[in-house]
Structure formats: C-alpha cells, structure tokens
Amino acid sequence: STWEGNYKNTLDRVLEDLAGEKQPASVSGKGILERLQYDKFGKLSAPGSRGRRRRIINAAKFLTFAVETLGMDARWLPPKDLKDLKGIARGDAKSESANAGQAVRITETGWLKLMDSLQDPRWRLVIGLLGCFGLRPWELKYASVDGDTLFISKGKRTSKGTTDPRHIEYLDPIERPGLGKQLLLELSKGVGLPPLGPTDAVTSSAIDTFLRRRAVWNELRAEANAAGEKLKVYSFRHRYAFATAMIYEINPKSAADLMGHSFKTHCESYQKWVDKDKNSKVVQTARAKVLQPVNNP
After folding, report:
1. What is the CA radius of gyration of the chain?
2. 162: which of 64, 102, 118, 155 fits an S-S bond (Cβ 3.0–4.6 Å)?
3. How far is 62 from 154, CA to CA, in rounded Å?
C-alpha cells in the first residue's frame, strides 16, 4: 500500500515521460523533475506543497539509483539542490498539504463522548482499541489478547524491511481508568469486530465511512475544522502518542517501541508534544536520584 500510495504514480509518470507518450521526452534528469512540478492534470502545484515535494524527491531518488547503481548516463542525474524544483511554500499559498490537512489528535473528552454514543458494541470496541492502544487501522485485523497486552501479529512494511510483531500496553484516559482491561476482556470473549474491508489498505476507509455517518463524529470534525485542523481516523493513534508524552510521561524511546515505529519517526512526528515547562522538574528529580547525600558510617 505504501508503494501504491507514495511511489507508483510518480514513477509511472517518469516512464511515460521517457517514452514520450504524451509529449516530447525529456532529455535530462532535471527535465523530468521540472515536469513533475505539475500534477497529473497538468496544473502547476503550489510551491512547497506536499504532493509536489513528494514527486520531486521520489523521482530524484529513482534517477540517482538509475545512474549510480544501474549505470545510466550521467545526464539523468538530478540536480544536487532540489530547492527550486520543490519550491518554498508562501504564507498565503494554499498548498496541497494544507488542503489535505494532517490529522490532529482527538481529545480525551471527544474520544469518550464518541465511544459512549455508539450502540454497536463491535464499533465501540474498534474506536476504543484505536485510542487505547494507538493502533494503525489495519492492525485491528491482526490484534489478539495476550495477558494484559494487545499482540499485533503482523509488522509494518517499510523501506528497510518489515517491523517485528509487538505487544502493546494500554493507556487509559484519566477520566476512565480500567478501560484498557475492559476492551481486552471484550475482545477475548468474542465481541468481535465489524467488517473492515477485504484488504488492509481499505480498512481506514471503512472506518472513516462508518464515522462520517455518526452525528457526534461530525460535531467533533466541525469543531476541529473551525480551528483549522483535521480530525481523521489516525487521530486516535495520535491520542495515544499524546498520552505517552503529556499524561503518562513515558520516555520517547519506549513510546516509539509501543507504537511500532522508529525513534526517529516518533521524534519527528510527536516532538511538538514535549512539555518544555516540565523540563526543570525532570532535571530536579534526576538530580535528587543521583546526588543523594552519602551516609557516613
């Protein structure tokens, strides 16, 4: 699904360009990248927009590989500096990423309100598991109970391979202690999950379709939109990440392991939730542990 969503369309366009199917073929790597500043409909993408940057970066990697590893002519090398090709987003420009909107976390109150509004116990279980264990939507299909943890039997495919299966600890909302154990009990006793699509790739869409038919979800989305934010299926996973940092104060390395991604990815995605106001308290606590008075015999 990562290949289909992030890479295939761009490389299909590169091959179309090289074959001269729609217009005279490019004669250099830079020429190929210049055409990728335009979307598939021929419209120039906003400078610095997410789609434009992704196309340029992924095609540049491909061209570099073709020359340096496969021996293609050096004219296909991309420019060393891609800044001008990617463009720089302006404050008044509506970039593709802004239009798409990155998911923000759902609040504890909003999450619980949504769960309480659901009549179908299967869907209530879905929404509870997503937020209490920080799951990717497709991981629901590979979730089983192992003691007091949720075991995900399938890892995520990445450019470096596949991550290991993992056990996840629940993080209850403060307002509802015991929720995690309750969800594990429901799953182990066979409450079951609703149909989530025939493939992993469409699971998120199946959940999104269900949620968009719920009044409470649409109220929460409207509130987020009014604040210039987007509430999406991944908002439940972001809730878990927020809880690791701001409620349970779990160190980022452990939080990354629980969420099944690298420490680098975790920091890049969630470092905005590090509470700098607590740094002094953390240092003072650490000093107290290390610099304890020595008791003379």
Report:
1. 23
2. 155
3. 29
pLDDT tens-digit profile of 231-251?
999 999 999 999 988 888 888
What is each CA distance from 57 to 48, 73, 83, 217, in whole angstroms?
12, 20, 10, 36
Segment 256-271 shows an average pLDDT of 81
269 three-state secondary structure: helix
Would the pLDDT of 165 be above 70?
Answer: yes
Q: Are 124 and 118 in contact (CB under 8 A)?
A: yes
Residues belonging to the chain = 297
* Rounded Cα gap, residues 62 and 56, in angstroms: 10
Q: What is the pLDDT of residue 275?
A: 53
Strand 149-152, strand 143-146: pairing: antiparallel
Contact in structure between 221 and 151 (CB atoms under 8 Å) = no
Measured CA to CA, the distance from residue 160 to residue 168 in angstroms comes to 22
Number of Cβ within 10 Å of residue 58's Cβ equals 18
Q: Report the distance separating Cα 236 and Cα 33, nearest Å.
A: 36
Say whether 184 sits in a helix, a strand or coil: helix
* Residue at 127: amino acid letter: I
Q: How does DSSP assign 216-276, residue by residue?
A: HHHHHHHHHHHTT-B--TTHHHHHHHHIIIIIS---HHHHHHHHTS-HHHHHHHHGGG--G
* pLDDT tens profile 53-96: 989 999 999 999 999 999 999 999 999 889 889 887 654 333 33
Distance CA(101)–CA(212), nearest Å, equals 17
CA-to-CA distance for 243 and 254, rounded, in angstroms?
13
**CA nearest to 132, candidates 163, 178, 165:** 178
